[in-house]
Design brief:
Blueprint: E1 28-35, E2 42-48, E3 53-60, H1 65-86, H2 94-113, E4 121-127, E5 132-138, E6 143-147, E7 150-154, E8 172-175, E9 181-185, H3 187-190, E10 193-194, E11 197-198, H4 200-210, H5 216-232, E12 244-251, H6 255-259
Helix pairs in contact: 1-2
Length: 262
């Protein structure tokens, strides 16, 4: 007979986040695609609020996949109701609401992980009517914004989530012009290798600058195909030990006429 203190602690059932439902937008499209088996902690999600804003998140939780997914499930459970509340009104100040949301998600990650757990994140709020994007890049791979002026990087402007309980992040604002596209990729994509060479951010930027695409799904698909071609060009090809994930937002050219009532 075992004494109570000799019995193993009960194992907690690890959760998984619900599959992200990709919303249908008016004059914009959004998509998220990945290549090969899911082996890491990449997580993405979307929410359209009552004020017709699109809130989206790309998160990369470090550690074992099952534990990372459990943390992502906790993030999802908190993100949906809080984002719906914060961005409910038409006149919401996005520069205030977005940091408030991120602070809470950071707290959730620390609590669910039971301590420190590095989780780079890109959190955005897109107002389709005006084509504005409020965003926070918390230690994530730079986002790529392609418009008629070329491709620019939306660099990290704060620490990854899950490291510091009192970390704060300021939101930045940019415009998604008609015909422009925003692309987010996981660290696993830029670190995909052909032999000893990584695909890298520079090669990704060149790829995005030269390709044409119909919508967000087409952009994601072409980028993943380019990475696949690069990695398979080497006889030393090896499957990545991280997720290879893309998330894209494309604003249609006709958005300008629609916004102006033309």
């Amino acid at each position: 007979m075992k004494l109570p203190f000799q019995n193993p602690a009960p194992q907690r059932t690890l959760r998984r986040p619900q599959p992200a439902a990709v919303p249908q937008l008016g004059n914009s499209s959004i998509s998220a695609l990945y290549r090969a088996a899911r082996v890491g902690g990449d997580f993405y999600d979307f929410l359209v609020t009552d004020s017709r804003r699109l809130v989206f998140l790309l998160l990369d939780v470090a550690g074992k996949r099952e534990e990372a997914l459990d943390i992502a499930a906790a993030v999802q459970e908190r993100m949906h109701p809080l984002a719906a509340e914060l961005f409910r009104d038409d006149d919401v100040n996005e520069a205030d609401a977005l940091p408030t949301l991120l602070i809470e998600l950071n707290r959730v990650i620390l609590q669910a992980a039971g301590g420190v757990r590095c989780a780079p994140a890109f959190l955005g709020c897109y107002h389709e009517e005006f084509g504005t994007l409020a965003y926070i890049n918390a230690g994530h791979t730079p986002a790529l914004l392609k418009d008629h002026g070329g491709v620019t990087h939306l660099e990290a402007n704060g620490f990854p989530l899950g490291l510091f309980s009192h970390a704060t992040h300021d939101a930045r604002i940019t415009a998604i012009q008609p015909g422009a596209a925003l692309l987010l990729v996981s660290r696993g994509l830029v670190e995909s290798k052909a032999g000893s060479k990584e695909y890298g951010l520079e090669r990704l930027t060149e790829c995005v600058s030269r390709i044409s695409f119909r919508n967000a799904e087409d952009l994601c698909s072409q980028v993943l195909s380019a990475v696949k071609t690069f990695t398979e060009s080497s006889w030393r090809r090896k499957e990545t030990d991280n997720d290879v994930t893309t998330l894209a937002l494309v604003r249609a050219e006709r958005a300008a006429a629609a916004a102006g009532g033309g």
